Amino acid sequence: MADTNTRISTLVGENDVVLFMKGTPLFPQCGFSSRAVAILDHCGVAYESVDVLQDMEIRQGIKTYSDWPTIPQLYVKGEFLGGSDIMMEMFEAGELKQMMDDQGVAKAEG
User: Which domain CATH number covers 71?
Assistant: First the structure.
């Protein structure tokens, strides 16, 4: 488990925004992950995604790492924000994009 925590810490530390999700941004494998991708895409930020379905150690380890039982999970600048419901609430209130702007998160290319 220590190795898994190290891998997760590295992912979270090396990327401004990390979404641990089921599937990929192009092919989300659950509705909550699909919603999380849509929110981030709408915010126009660059982000790294981790498909937990491809790595069972990460799938279990991320739940322990964050002390949060569900996936997807969003990290911004090393801080755990929450899952798709929290993302949606923050997005609808305008808080998510504002936080991304305030923290200088890189914009998506395109």
Answer: 3.40.30.10
Closest CA to 75 of 42, 98, 83: 83
Residue 81, burial from CB neighbour count under 10 angstroms (0-12, 13-18, 19+):
middle
Q: Residue 97 pLDDT > 70, yes or no?
A: yes
Are 69 and 52 a contacting pair, CB within 8 Å?
no
Among candidate residues 6, 45, 52, the one with its CA nearest the CA of residue 28: 52
Total tally of structural domains belonging to the chain = 1
Instruction: With CA atoms as reference, report the closest residue to 87 among 107, 68, 62, 106.
Output: 68
pLDDT of 1 above 70: no
Model pTM greater than 0.85? Answer: yes
| DSSP structure class, residue 107 | B
Full domain range(s) for residue 44: 2-102
Q: What letter would DSSP give residue 72?
A: -
Report the distance separating Cα 44 and Cα 4, nearest Å: 30
